[in-house]
Amino acid sequence: MLKRLVRILLAVVLGLAVSELALRAAGSALLSAGGQRAADGGSAERFLCLGDSNTYGLYLEGPDSYPAKLDALIRAHAGATATVINLGVPGQGVHHVREGLPAHLERYAPKAVLVLAGVNNTWSSSGGRTTAFGRWVSDMRLVKLARLVTERFTGRGGADAGAGAAASAAAPSPNAAPASSAAAKPAIGAQDQMDLAEFMARGEETADGIVHRVRTRSGEEVVYLQEQRALEGQQYLDAISGGLDAIVDLCEGAGARAVLLTYPMDTPVTARINTAVRAVAARRGAVLVDLEREFRPYLAAGLTEALLFPDLHPRANATEIMARVCLRELLRAGLVQGEAQALPSVQEIQSGYRPPQRALSWQNGKLGIEGSHGESGAVFLSTAAGELAFHGMKTQLGASALLLASRERKDLGFTIGPSGRAEVAIPAEWLKSCSERGLELRAVALYSPQNLHGQWDNVSNTLVIEPLR
Predict the structure, then answer these.
(1) Do the domain assignments include residue 354?
(2) Which burial class, exposed, middle or buried, applies to 100 when counting CB atoms under 10 A from its CB (0-12, 13-18, 19+)?
(3) Are 77 and 143 in contact (CB under 8 A)?
(4) Which of 32, 151, 279, 376 is 20 to 30 A from 198 via CA?
(5) Of 348, 367, 388, which residue constitutes the final position of a domain?
(6) What SS3 string covers 199-259?
């Protein structure tokens, strides 16, 4: 009886092993078919840049992202056979990068993998540290197939979740997420100058979180689930450290060098993330690109606004610095040949910076708001003159019922677009009421630091709108 059970068990294990190997072989075949191999003609040296919106280049055109600038620098030294591939995806955390990395390593066979991620783990995470065995089990094609089948029959994945189950398990899409509807929104384009508001608006809410469809700067469509489950305290730092450890393991297993980047500016959140990144790089012998250290002199000179958008994403001049620092560290690690490029001086950044004009105007029945691209805030209205201050920001508004009402209106919020301008429509009933009563309408725009609604660090002029006749 015991021998029979052992034979059955061995047969089951052998069958699972054969099935796993078959799915992996099918995955490799699918990746190779239809021109899905790297589109750079089999370049000898590929450098992958993975991470969140700081890698993607939020608010920027594709050529202004740091990977695109690093590509130009490396090609200038290593020739046309070297290429940098931007696979950054807005909203992704370290766990998303880790989950998608095996497919990227298999497809591109890179020389090095540059990773800048972690800030999204503070509010969206799949958990803390995982063991090597747990990661191995999670990466099994059979396990992924079982998840897809389970989601299909439990209804968690929506109408389309099971349609490509076998193909997805064989050649898993990076950071795959269940479809939320039969008619999914198209992916945001590879070269779109996307801002944060547009990215969040394009997400599709599901029971498990928000499904995002984004096309990377390199043209790959990525569908992933952004779990709305924040980890607290040390948990998210453990998740980041554990995820980075796993990323280094995967890179080493594929013969690629792991390169870990810190965020350019220390905040109460990013300072802890940067410390964790440095610790993992030191412990694992990964290449460290300490952007925060290199940006310190610029930020100490008061150039934060010149280099970073209001929510701290890098501007085009900051991505140039990022690319040059990356090149220098790749040279030091012997991953590329050539000469390092000097960083711009504080004086050069200062001379090339023009502070944004924060102003309010009234045109064609709408308020025109000028400011810095990516900056957000809200318009406050009042029928009374005065000297009210908001977080120390002085205005010429007085207390009134309309002021209280305007502070509750979400449609009076704004985000400055690429043109440096936004528009807000004043509710028609308010304009009509002021006109009928012969009241002047006073308006100011208050701007938020790092897009923290309800906190203000800049204010426009006070605009007086005469009663409509």
Answers:
(1) no
(2) buried
(3) no
(4) 151
(5) 348
(6) HHHHCEEECCEEEEEEECCCCCEEEEEEECCCCCCHHHHHHHHHHHHHHHHHHHHCCCEEE
